[in-house]
């Protein structure tokens, strides 16, 4: 099965324009599910505002004839610093679901992080993109289940299917439940019936996962510098600065505000990724200038997927990547490594 | 007499949703009475904004299987750091009045501070909740009357009825009068006819109250660090950082801004409580991280009471307590004592 | 001639409520004349916002039984720190014009600064209030005319009529003209026909005025600390921090922001007054805590005058004075001198 | 050909009032072309806000009888520090196009920077204003073409036509394309068919231009202090702090924020000009007080041109110049050199 290409909406100027199209295509429940935020939406708004408050101070005349967005991540060359964030139940957004967004990512050289709550089998996703030369990283996100054997069973599937890293989400195990009536045929296909998330995982569980799998392990949901330091001490492969897009703890610090302190605490010992409110290529440039190695994109990709399937998701990624390339050129940065704090105002940190 | 349980409004997601229900249930005068603010509402808005401007920087993977909101206050174990703030004439909000909110508090393990201007006899309130094992503190709030004997008469009633502490309000004796036509059957049942508040109490009056009653005395309405230091010097049992919810001095500093300086001045010599704009569990977590030992909730409880009587008030308290528990778990704090300044951004102070 | 007392508008809670009444009573030209601001209104809005951004940190339990707003100004005891700012052509607002506002001021113990562009003869104003025991200062405002003899002629009239000080406005000689069609019978009664303002006065002109009149001279329109220092060196009797209510230079610093630096530069060598955006008693308390000795009130008094003549203007002054007294009591300040920087947040300066 | 004078719109109080008139006169495409901004308009809004956040602290009594806006720029006396910014295709705004705005500039003593993408021949522009005694600088703006010979051919035309300096734009070579259907008869008359901009110019290209032309060279589009220092080292004749009016990199720092750091880096070795959001004379005063030597005006001039041709553009320039003169007088600055950082709040830098 390969998604059929759909027509793109007219008059899209930037990735953010897709939100309105998605809203008009989705039923209210599906829209609310992806658009959700905790409490009064304080953190969600803060995420966005924090990127806007960082300004770029471009360099000129650096003779940047070619912009190169390639980078190293976990010892592998990647075409770009963009990844699709792990998001559950993408078939709520579009019948192609995760298959659509994974193909979109591969086509744009972006990475893809499959969610443990995927509504498409993870093997099917991997099979569709694994052999694509130009694709980015293919990672698998999981939360720890109460039952280590059940956790391991899923990890083994991910390993066998060719996923290259495990992204362990650590900020969402305790969360206010939100009622959701799944439409016929949409469900988390890998979650065992009756499976329960580990309500209170600890660093020892992380160590267990590191020892139980040969895959590198990244932690997603780190906001405190002390936790970043612990990640480094434990030899984790990376961490994602994230507040779950403002969906978990309303009042949590904006990721753009947390990022510099995390980068400092990590001290170059492991790559720092970030998500939360990133909606355009200039946000990516700012994130990298603040010290992030790569970024994860959530809602923008869902908006593209909902509006026009794989083609829409790919268009969103291309718009963001193109704007990143444009921003790099405008900042005189031929390579991602040239996106440094000296391009920022106010001065970093 | 026990309040009849009422149906809860549908589609409540958080405590703040009760405000609209209360507004539609109350007549304009009653709504205005509880919703009142001094002047242009500057301080009331500032209270709310100041909590929003404090962000939480959660810790992860601390293996928090159980969250414990128990704490010590005035040498007694309390189930939670929540108390219902003293509010006058609650029968304006609902026929059950203070009885409703006191039962709500007891049912949720929150403390209750009965107002000297209660519209239900304080003995009746105390009788209804005194023997509840799971209840929080039962305190009595008073302003000094011009006549010390009259003041003492009320204090003696509170002592006899089993109230465990006196909360002396010191920020509202001088206040612009607001016309209020009390409906039939609603009145301050303990204020002697013709009683006048002491227009200009001093620290010597506080000392007198300390000596006149065996109950511990807390001061409510402290905003200046120098006054907090004086409270400590006089051996007061506690103080409440409060600007009376923005009802007294428009332009007074927001309580979340005053709190850290008060905590510093108190230096651990007496517990610091706070109220003003606290409307959700994350606000409580922030207050405690800023150094408060407990918080008082005013308007949210009235909104619940007005909307659905004791059941509504209890629901409000449960929503706030649940969100506090959630926030604690999300911050990796198993106990209240783990809510510390290192969880805050911007860094404290 | 004495103004007839008019009925006050109903449902006034604070001085600011008079603005709407004034607007409905005045024709558009008159409203625009008094409500005018330079350019885009940046400074006018900044004035207001700057007072709002200063918070009060009240003291409690200071046993303030009586609040005393008396103060010394230019060696004379004054009932309050309020003065009516000099405003031209007040008969545009109400037939009683300056006579109405002067009587209002005298009745409330506020000072009155008659404008050189008064639409009522200055002798008539002075005669009506001069012998009022309870009145505040009676000052005369002037701009320097190109012709010193003409200037002196007006000064001599003010001296003879009993005015006690000269307020020399120094920020409005160069101003974009604004077309104004004066209604029949409304005109600046003391400005000689064909008189021109001195287009470029200097400090030597101030020295000349000091030597030419036995009255003390204050400067109005000072915003720069260096100019305040010069005022002190020249032995001026006082200065008014003012940006002309945002009517002259759009983009000028807000007076509440300029005030602390001016107070510091004045170093106690001369009294510092302030105007600009002061609309309620708490603003007055903030101004005094920031170091001002007294405040001038402009538009609020015009609003009262326009809405209900002398009675309206008096009501405005009483509301502001009452709120000042309330704020003092709430801050534990029995006297104006107790309004000090330690009552402010953020900390001063 | 000389433009016919058109009637000015009624009820214009300041230059900004022309925007509405322009909008009603232009078709949507033309309006959008000039009003365009990159991305979400973040930088465009930031430009404007940054000027508003700088306040002026005027001096008084400096006996400023005459205000003199003359200044030296590139060794030539100029009547004012205002220049019309280089803008392409001005015949989209009005049939007179660049001829109208150049004549407007000359009539007001403002400089004119002709765009390489002028829709009127540069010789015709120069011929119309070159011999005007009272005019300001006449400069020619260019981007480097891929073909140095083609670039040089245009430079030679500019030299021959009497242009006095070259303004090399360095921030817009890499830009997201925007579709534009040119109306009949409107086109960039000097751009060779098929000419391509140099996609990645470097400092060596600047050096080449310096050596290839006898005209002084200024750089436009500098935001980073390090680039300003490089300009100084290369002996450039000047630089323009600019983010292209927010049209190029959305998220670029506001020019008023970048300016002080650039001035510091330039260290007086070359004049610093600035544009971006300047819309009134007080903005010009602020820019000069922050250290700029002159300012460029873009959209305001186009709005005047669109609304009323040369007369409208001249009116805009006159309003801004008059407000500058007024602001200078109100600040006690008889000459531009007296607009210094000590007139600013917050204190500079």
From TrEMBL, chains A, B, C, D:
Its cofactor is FMN. It comes from Ramlibacter montanisoli. The keyword Flavoprotein applies. The keyword Oxidoreductase applies. Belongs to the FMN-dependent alpha-hydroxy acid dehydrogenase family. The active site is at residue 244. Coiled coil: none annotated. Keywords: Flavoprotein, FMN, Oxidoreductase. GO terms for molecular function: FMN binding; oxidoreductase activity. This is Alpha-hydroxy-acid oxidizing protein. Residues 7-349 form the FMN hydroxy acid dehydrogenase domain. It holds the Pfam family FMN_dh. It comes from the Bacteria. Glyoxylate binds at residues 33, 178, 244, 247. FMN binds at residues 86-88, 115, 141, 169, 220, 242, 298-299.
